[in-house]
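[stage:ingest] chain + small molecule (pyridoxal-5'-phosphate)
[stage:ingest] validated
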Amino acid sequence: MSFSAAQFKQQFPLFSQPENRELVYLDNAATTQKPAVVIDAVRDFYLHSNANTHRSSHRLARRATEMVERVRNQAATFLNAGSVREIIFTRGATEGLNLLASSLTEGLAAGDEIVLSTAEHHANLVPWQMAARRHNLTIRYVPDEKGIPQFARLPEVLSPRTRIVSVTAGSNALGFRSDLELLRRMLRGRDLRWIVDAAQLAAHQLVDVQAIGCDFLVCSAHKFYGPTGIGLLYGREQWLQQMPPWQGGGEMIADVDLQSSHYAELPHKFEAGTSSLAAIAGLGACIEFLQQQDRVAMAAHEQGLLKSLHGQMAQLPGIELLSHGENNLGILAFSDSRFAPVDLMHWLDGKDIAVRVGHHCAQPLVRASGHSATLRASLAAYNTQEDVDRFVSAVAEFVQQLDSEKSAAVSEELAITDGWQADDFSALDLDALRSRRGWQERYRLLMQWSKSIAAKPAIRLPENTVKGCESSAWLAHQALHGKHYFALDSDSRVVKGLGAFLLLQLNGKSAEEIRQTDLESVFRELEFEKHLSPSRSNGFYALMQRVNELLGSVA
Ligand code: PLP
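[stage:predict] done
[stage:export] tokens:
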């Protein structure tokens, strides 16, 4: 088998709706889109099978009951559980974790310990904090570096009082995968319950609870192309048998009298009330749909996009990447001190590119990375290289526009105070000059750059004259908000080209940054000295000397 993202995407009707034809959907860690088979299954349930399960025995009720138990069977295969009694339908990962936090802590003694990681989604933090408060338990955290758990150091926080270890299989904020094999080896043989939050993992790889070796695992169908409102809780039968039910109500009982009740057998003991029946039907179709895919090729496709995404974003100057392209479930997270992530999110939204901004319900992790919010782009298998490229170029355009807006604002301010405007070099790219093959090509680009130096009669004053330059040249300077700006004018195109090369690297920097800029090395690296006549090279050095004099006069 193999995998084609284009063919896969065609199975998701949302993308072929007229208003969504240009949509780039990169918010998959929040929820994925749904294939036609899932949408149809939900609709079909209401058309052909809608009745409550178990309680009644008419034809429709029997049909609905059979459907629920068939999907439970499918789910057991999907997760490789030992039996259907180990599969509990929940509303989602959050409900699964609340169930565990409530039921597993019942009967624990004050001072017993729960181990979590700093990278958890709030769904795997808050329920434990609530339970800890109720039973006087202690929560300990796996040692971390900037919020990223160092699972190799888990034994440091395990103690004879540890009763529960509940950790994510992969971060929804930064995408990194947890080393489940390492966790299995470290937790094997200990008298505690190990819970894996696979809410993010399940969309990106096959989940095998027996191979993982955990006691419990939770996931949400909507994260892996299934409907909202339905999730799975896997639990080892021996532990589920011992645990008290979480919620009480219909369906979870065998017998009720006025003072007490007897509970139903597994798995129904944990399924109080009417389940999300239509969503269960959709989940069944979703599992079947996924089983028809080449999951290995699908994951390889996602990983290819992820590497491209990280590789391209790393080229954009000023962007602080918080995620890595390796060992990652499919998430790019970044920040940039030049703008609020929400501004970029709106800009992308305007181009019909959907991403998410915020703490992603993982506040401790995002805070530890030094931010209150990040921008997250998360992949699914229907994303394409075109999606990645459109996203990156939209971000690049936003950043470039921001830079030129800034320099335009500064220019205006300079013009008011000194009668001249700093030239706009935002379209010039030093790397473009570097990558030109051969001197002729580079010289040609330099001549184009000369056009970015506008005529400035206002600075053609004796005090601005650059001495030692063969042609007439004038350099004016102004400091604004601790940054330095220079304006050049000259009769010579070559001097203007060299001036653009120089000022591109200096304008808008502090004096210290300018002193640290090694212009001479770049000048030599680009072979200017070798190919320009001595008088032209001297002209460049004369400009540099004038820059230093002007800086010295304000120091
Ligand atoms: N755990 C992780 C890692 C998640 O990413 C999420 C949702 O984003 C959850 C738990 C909670 O999932 P749900 O909201 O579907 O219950």
